[in-house]
Amino acid sequence: MSHFALQSTQVVIAGKMIAACVEIKDQLIHAIHAYGQELSCEVKDFGEQVIMPGLVDSHVHINEPGRTEWEGFNTATQAAAAGGITALVDMPLNCIPVTTTKAAFQEKLDSVDDKLWVDCGFWGGVIPDNIDELDDLLNAGVLGVKSFLIDSGIEEFPPVEAKDMRAAMPILAKHDVPYLIHAELDCGHFDDVEITKEYDSFLESRPKSWENNAISLMVDMARESKAAGDNCKVHIVHLSSDEALSTIAQAKAEGLRFTAETCPHYLTIASENIPDGKTLFKCCPPIRENKNREHLWQAVTDGRLDFIVSDHSPCTPELKHIDTGDIEKAWGGISALQFGLALIWTEAKNRGFTLVDLARLMSQETAKFAGLDSIKGAIKVGNHADFCVFDEKFEYTITTEMIKHKHNITPYAGRKVFGQVNHTFVRGFHVYQQDEFINSPVGRPLLKGQL
After folding, report:
1. I want to staple 68 with a disulfide (CB 3.0 to 4.6 A). Which of 6, 72, 215, 448 is the partner?
2. Domain identity same for 39 and 79
């Protein structure tokens, strides 16, 4: 059906919640009418359920090709659709090969055929030995690139140093794409920390100073870039340390193109509440104490943190060492792609946030960051007809049986939340309805220069 309309007494449009009828034609938002408008096409009425712009998650590890036993595009994009996400951006690791060359990127594009339930963009990677290939990689359509300042856990994706970034940043500035940074610097002195089954021992082994120092370095790099006339966009992924917030605020105040994100696990979990030996909670940087969590919420409120993304980073249950509780050996990463909106809404609504705010933090700003805001991130005429229909009052407990990503493990099992995604539309195609996937995979790659 290429011509129809959706209406509700609650629709998020232009920063407001209003009663409206949204007309869809040929995969795009054709017009916005008053609620109850008589039209020549079918009108689906969702009553008081909220019609939001489809979420845009710019931080997802899908791991295909090469590590599809961890996750793949079919299951990851199904989980995204179940979470109201209509577009995501895939990270350049932990797939094989890592997305650091044009050829590797083509392998990834070849692997997505008939597997995408939502639209998908891609980040490339910067490592010490691929600087000369960056132009080709960026011209191939990646939306930006990512580097690590610390061991990534993947041998093929080694960390960069300042000299590597100095070489890369003018190229990235020329293409006007963001440089995403995993901001931890191993400052030493913690090698003697024994990581036991106690979560606090893992927390002690990965202190805030690692993030703080890395972010200070990146502010210095951004200053250098601006002084050189490049002014490269620098972005800090998955911020965990509240002590780095003042550094980020200073960078913004100086007019640097400097942004930062955080994730549901840092905003909804406190280290004091993590049981010993529960490896599903391990991620890097780590989940910190409740006081830190509250400071992150303050930064989301006042804009020091720009948006919220999942950092869905799955692996096999075996790599999580669930049975032994060995935190040191367990792979670090949180799996929760489809639950992000409900998790954040449950916390945010008690802090004065509205679903209009969440649409900004999880759709509008993420689309803008990834360079997708000409087509995604807002319900406006001409944009893709991407919608999430959300029952904000529905209360339930997350169970492993609900999980749509590849392995039915998540640290959120047993957690009570508010808010359920009942329908997801991608470019006007109805792909998810009340726990069922309908039609077939209709998602398509989102390539820079070809949007």
Report:
1. 72
2. no
